[in-house]
Amino acid sequence: MGLLTKKNVRLALDLLGEMYPDAGCELQYHDPYQLLVAVVLSAQTTDKRVNMVTEDLFRVCPGPAEMAAMEESELQERIRSIGMYRTKAANVIKLSRMLMEKYDGAVPAEQDLLEELPGVGRKSANVVLSVAFGQPRIAVDTHVFRVANRIGLVQEKNVLDTEKALMKRIPEAEWTVNHHRLIWHGRRVCAARKPACESCLLDGICKKNEAPKKD
């Protein structure tokens, strides 16, 4: 139980790199706008399900101009298979209209401006900034929160403190790649209820902290 030593933090990051050398965003998109929409749709929904929905959606509405012109009821039908589809449809149309009105259809590359868009919180903004614009960020989703605290990279009780602590323990140049590696590890090995410790390279150094519950 507890925190990894500085030496073992380095070892943990290296081992994650061995396990997931190709880790990256698993949402499918062609530009920052499509990534933004996919991220908004992905809340409490798997990337696999979002990709199934956006494959057709982005053929019909590849950009904010087309999405802004769509009726909310039609978008609801197109994304009906994902969770909270009514709220997400409203947010996607509103953010598309806001992008057209305020930014001539471009996605801003500033966190505060992104967070002003409907349906976009800190985590979503961090994903867009890191993946679409190459800015070093750590986006703390449920997997990053669970895995980082469980293995002992950090010991925090909420998402924001986890993000801040990870930024101190991981070199800035490695923020983005390790954000993806922690997500992949949470999806593939370090599950919430039954982590596959026997197949995990981190097993020898993992603190096996109790999976935290977010404040």
Could you characterize what this model shows?
The protein is built from 11 helices and no strands. Helix 1 packs across helix 11, helix 5 crosses helix 6 and helix 9 packs across helix 10. With 215 residues, it is mainly α. It has 2 domains: 81 residues, Endonuclease Iii, domain 2 (Orthogonal Bundle); 100 residues, Orthogonal Bundle (Endonuclease III, domain 1), CATH 1.10.340. The model has no long low-confidence stretch (mean pLDDT 96). Helices cover 55% and strands 0% of the residues.
What would you say about this model in short?
By secondary structure, the protein is an all-alpha fold.
CATH class annotation of the largest domain: Mainly Alpha
Which word captures the global form? Answer: elongated
**CATH architecture verdict of the largest domain:** Orthogonal Bundle
Structural class: mainly alpha
Helix percentage range: 40-55%
Mean of residue pLDDT values: 96
Unreliable stretches: none
How many domains, in number, for the residues?
A: 2
Q: What is CATH's topology name of the largest domain? A: Endonuclease III, domain 1
* Element string (H = helix, E = strand): HHHHHHHHHHH
CATH superfamily of the largest domain: Hypothetical protein, domain 2
